[in-house]
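Notes, Module 5: Reading structure tokens.

Key idea: the token line is not a picture. It is a compressed description, and you learn to read it the same way you learned to read a sequence, by spotting repeated patterns. We will look at two proteins. The first is printed below with its tokens.
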Amino acid sequence: MKLNKRVLFITGSHTLSGSEIANINVAEVLKNYGANIYYLVTPWSENKIGKYIRSKNIQTISYRIKTKVYDWRYVFQSFFLTFLDSYYLLKIIRKYGITSIHISSEHYVRIFIIYFAFSGKEIIYRMGDAPNIHRALFRWIWKKILFGKVKLFVCVSQYISDKIKSLGCPDDKIRIIYSYPFSRSTGNSFSRAKDEKESNTIISYAGQISRHKGVDVLVEAALLLCQINTKVIFRIAGDIQYNPDLYQELKNQIENSGLMERIQFVGFIDDIFQYFSNSDIHICPSVFEDPMPNVIFEAKSAGIPTVGFRSGGIPELIDHQSDGYLCDNKNADSLLKGINFFMNKENLAKAKISARQSLDSLGVNQKHFEDQWVAVYEQENEK
């Protein structure tokens, strides 16, 4: 079966996050089934995102956004720039003969809203975040434009699906497709030192260095545990330039405690599977309503349990005290309770087996992921 589609991906991320990688995985699947894929990237994301996309033999199109949607000083100017951005998007679509648009960024929906309002192209919206509806204008865009123009909303979790249903989105326009943890190594890996393999429990985090992801809560818990247990090592993976002020604040706390060797910031990790394979416990301490952290799938694929908060879509992925642990509260004490559950060797051994097996019960495997996404675009072929 061949997909005779020319698909433009508009995702809007500025960092190579788990959500962005998931979109690139979708692009790879469609390309492998014969679709021509074009990926819109901004000049400031060329080095990190554009390079990675091109390594997958996917063509990128560089475009500098003109609309300043988050700066109210330019509200009147941005009104006219929105027309200009939509005009240039129309030119790109005509130049490359685009038949379908794959979008996953509400930010870019607003930037290109004039085009979307009048477009007759097939639009697939992969929803990795809950809709932003705190302003009347945003609610109007969802109800009056997107629900009418988008052919299918592909939600990454039941949590997201429930959110758009509550806005009035028809059931027949909604699909739920969990992400699949494709290999994404580009050479930067992290291995356990020989002297750490048997004598320590390795507790790992991977994601944004930010407060909404709970990294400050994780460091607080790590400081408490390391003071009473000398056989644990915490590793925190993520781009330290994402939030350099927070990184420096947390680094100073660790240095002042004298625990630098056991609470380590290791930078951005490309080979996430090796990183988790050399770990024992994964921590996902998101304090905001995290819609669906892809990193949990990656941890499960490596066969390690996740300790996480009851945020957003996280409870969908964790069977409490089986393949992970769901904390009662979003604080360091509750996080420590979850970590200590897996400090019991018997609990940890059982959870490692259950973590990998749970992917099957969730229907998360490469073939299922590919079949589901091909079906999305097959459906579009029939319309």
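Here is the second protein, with the sequence above and the tokens below, as before.
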Amino acid sequence: MRPRWRLPVALLTTLVAAEAAVLLLRPREPVPRPEPVEARAYFSPAQIDRGEAFRSGQRTLYGVRLLLEGALLILVVRRAPDLRRLSGRPVLAGAVAGAALSLTLAAATLPVSALARERARDVGLVTQSWGGWAGDVAKSQAIGAGIAAAGGALLVFGMRRFGRHWWAPGAAVVFAFGALSVTAGPVVLDPLFNDFTPLERGPLRTQVLALAERADVEVGEVYVIDASRRTTAANAYVAGLGATKRIVLYDTLLRDFKPEEVRLVVAHELAHVANRDVPNGLLFLAIVAPFGMFAVARAAQAMGATPGAVAVPATALALAIAVPAITAVSNQLSRAVEARADAYAMELTGDPRTQIAFQRRIAVQNVSDPAPPGWFHVLQGTHPTTLERIGAAEARLR
């Protein structure tokens, strides 16, 4: 194969592998096709305008952040930092380059992040002080810099030890990091930012356990997170594997939503446990990582990456190109999994009307866009849109 075709073929093969993984792992259960519904049938004009205006502005800021990061990475690749003083310690040089690059990108995009936060505060989503936010940013960046330093060191070590084939052990490291993050993140990293308390004994806990028993699901623990210290938004999620498996409910969800709506959300999260969606996410990573890292290695090589200072920013730039493309493909799987969880929840509770009411209320509380632009939903959407979820509930009522 001609050298100039190697990189495009590697990138295309990665996307094909990701699409194949989506087809392999996507739900097989039939889900009713959503009824076509109009936003104005469920939301007032003011609510629609507010959600569209807020989310449109946040999307623009997200795009600006990506452009800033890309431009900075290109600049650093073209003018790699001088680490000659560490030339006798190339692995250490890789660690320094990784940490420095992480902190530089964070500093460059900090004004954009602050502006996005200010816009969220203006619509009532933010409850945290600027000082609290700054503390969270500092902790996040310290953790990110540490991870980037480890990644830079491993990258340079891998290049020196395995040459052009560093991508193979690199794929194993990526998978191991993903598995470690999923398993240990809920008990190591998450408590650094929030307090988690077991759902207290009472009617709701009894109902949650009854739902789990009816679904024949071993739920692990159910925790409540003190999300209200930062936001008025409501949410819930499943995290962890094995002994760290848990369902997490925002305290805002318990505070602001009706018991039947909370039960529906819990049933949705039980679906993720029952269908092993977290392990399946790791399986997707295991399938795609080798192809993705091969493409990243070829892209970094085309940018002049060698076991030196330029290796880290060149590989970071290659990742910045490859990861969003892979994510856009994987989001197809995410949307299908979430649609299945919605269907499971409505089947388990027998309550499609509550799904409609809940989707209306949470869209307003979280200042969501009920029908985001199609292109954005295809590229970034991890869940069906609000109108699709309402439409799926309406389909069950007919």
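Summary for the second protein:
- The beta strands are 196-198, 221-225, 236-239, 246-250.
- The longest strand covers residues 221-225.
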